Amino acid sequence: MVVGAVPRLLPGVVGFAEEICITLQAWSFGAATRLRFQTLTGNDPGMEFGPHLLLAVLEGAVGAAVLALTALGLSLVFGVMRVVNVAHGEFYMLGAVVAWFVASVIAGHPALGFVAALVIAPLAAAVVAMVADRLVLKPVAYDPEATIVGTIGILYILQQAALMWFGPEARPVEPPFNHRIALPWYDWAAGEWFYPWGLSTTSYKLFVIAAAVVILLAFWAVLTRSRIGLIMRATQLDRETALAFGIPVGRVYSLVFGLGAGLAALAAVLIVPIQQAHYLMGGDPLLLSFIVVIIGGLGSVRGTVVAALLIGMSDGIISVFLSPTLSKILATLLVALVLVFRPQGLFGTRAA
Amino acid sequence: MIRDLGLHLALIAVLFVLGLTLPDYHQGNMARILVLATYAVGYNVLFGYTGLLSLGHAMFFAAGMYGLGLVMQHGGWSPVPAFIAGLVSAALLSVIVAVLALRTVGVAFMIVTLMFSQSAFLTILYFGTWTRGDEGFVIPQAARQVAGLDLTDPVTRYMAALALFSVALLLVLWLVRRQEGAVLIGIRENEERTRMLGYNVLSHKILAVVMSGTLSGAAGAGYALLFGYVGATFASVQYSIFPLLWVLLGGAGTTIGPLVGAVFMFYLIDYSSGLTNAYMLIAGVVLVLLTLFARAGIMGEVRKRWAPWLP
Amino acid sequence: MTQSFKTNRRTLIKGAAAGGVLAAAPLVSRFAQAQSSAPIRIGFQQHVTGIGAAYGRWYGRTTDAAVKKINDEGGINGRMIEIIAEDDGTDPKRGAEVVGKFASQHDCDVAFGTLFSHVVYGSAPAAGELKLPYFVVSEGHHVASGALNRYTMQPGITDVKSQVQAMAPYVAENLGKKVTMIFPDFAFGHDHRDYFTAAIEAQGGEVLEHIAIPPTETSFTKYFPKIPRETEVVYHVMVGPAVLTFVKEMGEFFGPSKPAIFGFIDSLEAVDMTSPGLEFLDGTYFWEGMPRYAQADQTEYDKAFRAAVGVDDNGASVSDPRDVSTYAHMFGCWETLHIIKAGMEASDYAGPQDRAKLIEAIEAMTELAESFEHPQGPKLFNGKTHQVFGVQYISKVENGKLVKVHTTSIEDTQYPDEADYTTMAF
């Protein structure tokens, strides 16, 4: 009876192996720009290797930009307060939902609503987060285990509230501007530039990358150059000493929790014209942010950005060679193994 | 020791009597809860006693579930060898995970287990030809018979679930009353000190992961066998969060806590969903209240206030 | 039997509390009379929360409208319908628990309503064991494949296998023979992959590439380069909250030079066709279970159905034009409830003891004419496989609206039986 199952299992196993072989071939010929490799069905793939890779990198950069902002918020909360904020993804969701509300209330050019959302959504999320900090986290004295359960509770509450007032649909926000930009590519064999089939991005996606870079730089400047950044770093390093030096740790914690939520909400406002607001959208950003924070190492803006790039791009780039789901599996295992063999993360101090 | 054993046997006896007397609906619920509580008991070994927070236990539950389900569905195995196949799959997976993931600690351990589990979930989807992916498959009623016992009969099923739970419960009681259990608790309280005292911390942690994973796998195999369904949902992140919640609610590091937590959570959702569609809101508020007022979980508070001898 | 015993016992207790055991006797007899007019209790397994919530809400509205209509017309065998809705959280474990609750807590006569196929798979064993007739509105191939049991039926909506294969002749003839398929990498997508690939090959076409998208993916552009360039038709189907992103990014990827595009409306169910970024869809084709926009040749039944549920000519809620319905699926709830009514009337259904008779009565059904009860179109029920077959629609997007261009025959949707539930014991 068991033997009977083997023939049925075989094609899949072979397919798996073949895909791996193709990967190896593709890597070994990686230098040839116009590489053509045979897929399982024996057909030519759609796009040349080089343009495909560029597209995967561009798309990965958009994801990474948003992820870096979200993860930075989590990193801040985790680093300064030592709180594993399971509700972080819900603040992200809150940002997207508020952005939808703001954009749908403000008439006129979509840019008006978008700019208003950029201001209002992070503030709204920050206020909710600070209230949650006062009501839940502070009373349990930021105990690590208790805050996990408490923030799971906050997660449920925010999710259900969004379902009740926002509804179960995915709702779009119109981008302030959006142009399809076809990208050129250099053909070494023919010695000329040309526009490969399908290689394009949009002006808004480029804007998201740029905006994230600006915000990250600004944040880095605040953290390293300003008084409030100094206070936060001091609190992160040593809570007791900070208290002794008269730093109002309670207020710093509230502020940090609000700031973390605000960053997540800001990231969501940037992404919501590309993706949509949905009450369950917080799950993935939460998990990915955690991964980024740990891989990047605590308290390191640089590490967070590098890790976000790694996480944001890896599955897209691997999927140039493999089927999408297999790429996700390998990318996930790859990152897990990075952590296994470098538990302190790529940069920064050892976690926990 | 006698008091502990007496208490646990009495609990099992009470559950036995409940199985014969509860109304249909609650008998059905309790059968399911006992299987899920077995999962929580397994989770508690690692989290409650050893202090290692895993966010990936769904992979062990799923290993048991698919280990049993796939050989029954595609190999035509009978339930007993299939159940053993489920246990073996979960045990193997937990050995691999233990060796790799235990190189990390704290939040990194959480993330590594989470990512392994996520890979397991995606792997189930990737091999959809046999697993039928998210949709899963049904194990027919006719196949769920063991030695003339019909596991789809409500009373038989309840008793099978109770047997599974009892074995897990007594196993954990036995463990925590042995030196190994004391070492695990030592690791939880102060890993450095335990190492200084000359105990091999790593091998004890591996023991905890394997025991925890295998018990979780037993629960997964039990669920598939008793309720006739195998599906990828059980490998998803939320099914890794559930045992954490049950254990925290019931009381981490108490033998009975996982059952109490699973019962509490089930009936909280079941009852409040009858009152309002916003039952998640109620669940959220209750979690927050527990955080604020009963941080050690239900049995943890009982132990703290009235019965310090509780294991 | 158990039900009436339980209720009698409860009434006895109530009576005893009210004023002594003696007073209980008249109460019992009054109750026995009332039994025939007590409502028929239908458990509604609804996706209120979880990933299926957008569908669940419209399934709820359609169900309420159907129940109102049936009750206004005198109910079933003179008894009113009472809907007991329970949220399954779009989760197979909770689904099974809810079925148990319907059977032994709410004393429901039957259960119905589930859409997501993993919930159907998770719940069907419980329904079979508790001997509770379970009517799913899921469009999965689970029922007809023979994997479930005699108590599970799908009489109100066609399954994915017949929908998919019925598309192939039109696609091959009008859009092209070289197809690339993009679908979610789980069972529903795999059904599309397997059945459409076979059907298009039977039409002399071929599928150049299968692109399976991982579930929970939120960004899609990176996968589109896998589309072979000689593709004549892109066949897409996607489900979940990210569908709009998917369709939008596909438009941005192709830009001005796109192949013919054929999609399942699942890719845009509950999404406004006029959402920003969807302009490129003009000129593309969709499968529709039931045309979302009122058509030029709209039947009076479709008109009446829209009015009853509260849906305007654009397929959106009459109270909020931005609240777009799941029009291609939700008719299934309406039609299923009417099948339950017809089955109960044909079998003189009086209570849970008649459940087997009810199922046999439905198994005996065959042709279902297009009517106010079946506004989606004419259907043919297959009692052996517990699955209904019916016409399918293909629409083209013109100026932001879906305009029907083709109606399949029922024959296009049929395939050889894969099961015979009627030979199974109850």
TrEMBL record, chain B:
<keyword id="KW-0812">Transmembrane</keyword>
<dbReference type="InterPro" id="IPR001851">
    <property type="entry name" value="ABC_transp_permease"/>
</dbReference>
<feature type="transmembrane region" description="Helical">
    <location>
        <begin position="158"/>
        <end position="176"/>
    </location>
</feature>
<feature type="transmembrane region" description="Helical">
    <location>
        <begin position="6"/>
        <end position="25"/>
    </location>
</feature>
<feature type="transmembrane region" description="Helical">
    <location>
        <begin position="244"/>
        <end position="267"/>
    </location>
</feature>
<dbReference type="GO" id="GO:0005886">
    <property type="term" value="C:plasma membrane"/>
</dbReference>
<dbReference type="InterPro" id="IPR043428">
    <property type="entry name" value="LivM-like"/>
</dbReference>
<dbReference type="Pfam" id="PF02653">
    <property type="entry name" value="BPD_transp_2"/>
</dbReference>
<feature type="transmembrane region" description="Helical">
    <location>
        <begin position="46"/>
        <end position="68"/>
    </location>
</feature>
<keyword id="KW-1133">Transmembrane helix</keyword>
<feature type="transmembrane region" description="Helical">
    <location>
        <begin position="107"/>
        <end position="127"/>
    </location>
</feature>
<keyword id="KW-1003">Cell membrane</keyword>
<protein>
    <submittedName>
        <fullName>Branched-chain amino acid ABC transporter permease</fullName>
    </submittedName>
</protein>
<feature type="transmembrane region" description="Helical">
    <location>
        <begin position="279"/>
        <end position="298"/>
    </location>
</feature>
<feature type="transmembrane region" description="Helical">
    <location>
        <begin position="80"/>
        <end position="100"/>
    </location>
</feature>
<feature type="transmembrane region" description="Helical">
    <location>
        <begin position="197"/>
        <end position="215"/>
    </location>
</feature>
<feature type="transmembrane region" description="Helical">
    <location>
        <begin position="221"/>
        <end position="237"/>
    </location>
</feature>
<keyword id="KW-0472">Membrane</keyword>
<dbReference type="GO" id="GO:0015658">
    <property type="term" value="F:branched-chain amino acid transmembrane transporter activity"/>
</dbReference>
From TrEMBL, chain C:
<keyword id="KW-0813">Transport</keyword>
<dbReference type="GO" id="GO:0006865">
    <property type="term" value="P:amino acid transport"/>
</dbReference>
<dbReference type="Pfam" id="PF13458">
    <property type="entry name" value="Peripla_BP_6"/>
</dbReference>
<protein>
    <submittedName>
        <fullName>ABC transporter substrate-binding protein</fullName>
    </submittedName>
</protein>
<dbReference type="InterPro" id="IPR028082">
    <property type="entry name" value="Peripla_BP_I"/>
</dbReference>
<dbReference type="InterPro" id="IPR000709">
    <property type="entry name" value="Leu_Ile_Val-bd"/>
</dbReference>
<keyword id="KW-0029">Amino-acid transport</keyword>
<dbReference type="InterPro" id="IPR051010">
    <property type="entry name" value="BCAA_transport"/>
</dbReference>
<comment type="similarity">
    <text>Belongs to the leucine-binding protein family.</text>
</comment>
<feature type="domain" description="Leucine-binding protein">
    <location>
        <begin position="39"/>
        <end position="400"/>
    </location>
</feature>
<dbReference type="InterPro" id="IPR006311">
    <property type="entry name" value="TAT_signal"/>
</dbReference>
<dbReference type="InterPro" id="IPR028081">
    <property type="entry name" value="Leu-bd"/>
</dbReference>
<feature type="signal peptide">
    <location>
        <begin position="1"/>
        <end position="34"/>
    </location>
</feature>
<keyword id="KW-0732">Signal</keyword>
